[in-house]
Design brief:
Layout (H helix, E strand, L loop, with lengths): L1 E5 L2 H18 L4 E4 L6 H12 L9 E4 L1 E3 L10 H8 L11 E2 L8 H14 L5 E4 L21 E4 L2 H7 L12 E4 L2 H5 L3 E6 L5 H9 L17 E6 H4 L4
Parallel strand pairs: 1-10, 2-3, 2-6, 3-5, 6-9, 9-10
Antiparallel strand pairs: 4-8, 7-8
Helix pairs in contact: 1-2
The site of fructose -6-phosphate (F6R) has 14 residues, from loops.
């Protein structure tokens, strides 16, 4: 795993955006795996700026998001589809029909998950997957206990994750209890992976991921089985690790 430590969150976000921009310049038809949450917000702002400056285009790119809450429609303000439309897709030149986010209202969830996997494959696989990391070491919504062989599926969110994500909802009761998430095996099939972590709250998870046992108790530790992973940290997330 290549680790890049940046002086602050702005620099870490800029570095992450540059890695994605390089990918798009190298291969304009890239298939990007994208994440939601607080972590990538500034990275997406940087990508929007690079696009406005004429330095990158998403016109030929395709995207697949990691996850979506079960029970929320794409136009629910807290759905990950809305998040992506607002924070990135509506502000760059990506074709809406080439953006993919699991459907939280799918009537047949297993069939939808299989179709999502098939769609990733039929687009040639993910070239670059952007990840955040949960305090508990989750990647996407692969919570502790998720198997290395896991694929896109319906999962229960842990109480910890529900509590952390409650900040985006009016009350914790409104946070969905289930999600559809790409699996660990889905993520490990990406050609390149960039994991961004910001802030001291992520240090313990980063430490376990990089230096602990490779175990399903820390889903992010499975990234050590992949040769193309770059971890970008701000100084707070890296504090005391190196
Ligand atoms: C988001 C996702 C999650 C987040 C993680 C960190 O699509 O799959 O794994 O990356 O929960 O969330 P933030 O960035 O809000 O700290």
């Amino acid at each position: 795993i290549r680790v890049i430590v940046c002086e602050d969150s702005d620099a870490a976000s800029r570095t992450t955006a540059d890695l994605i921009a390089d990918q798009l310049r190298e291969r304009p038809q890239s298939v990007l795996g994208l994440a939601t949450g607080g972590t990538p917000l500034k990275t997406y702002e940087n990508l929007i700026e690079l696009h406005r400056d004429g330095q990158i285009s998403f016109a030929e790119a395709t995207s697949f998001n990691l996850d979506e809450y079960v029970g929320l429609s794409g136009d629910h303000p807290q759905s990950y589809r809305s998040f992506m439309n607002q924070t990135l897709f509506s502000k760059v030149d990506i074709a809406p029909e080439r953006t993919h986010v699991p459907d939280g209202l799918a009537s047949d969830v297993p069939a939808h998950c299989t179709a999502y996997e098939d769609s990733i494959q039929s687009h040639g696989g993910i070239d670059l997957q952007l990840l955040g990391i949960g305090h508990n070491g989750h990647i996407a919504f692969n919570e502790p206990g998720s198997s290395v062989d896991s694929r896109t599926r319906r999962v229960d969110l842990t109480d910890d994750t529900i509590e952390k994500n409650a900040r985006f909802f009016d009350s914790p009761d409104e946070v969905p209890r289930e999600a559809i998430t790409m699996g660990i095996a889905t993520i490990l099939q990406a050609k390149k992976i960039v994991l961004l972590a910001i802030g001291s709250g992520k240090t313990a998870a980063i430490k376990s991921m990089l230096f602990g046992e490779v175990t399903d108790e820390v889903p992010a530790s499975f990234l050590r089985q992949h040769v193309g992973v770059t971890v970008v940290l701000d100084a707070a997330a890296a504090d005391g690790l190196f």
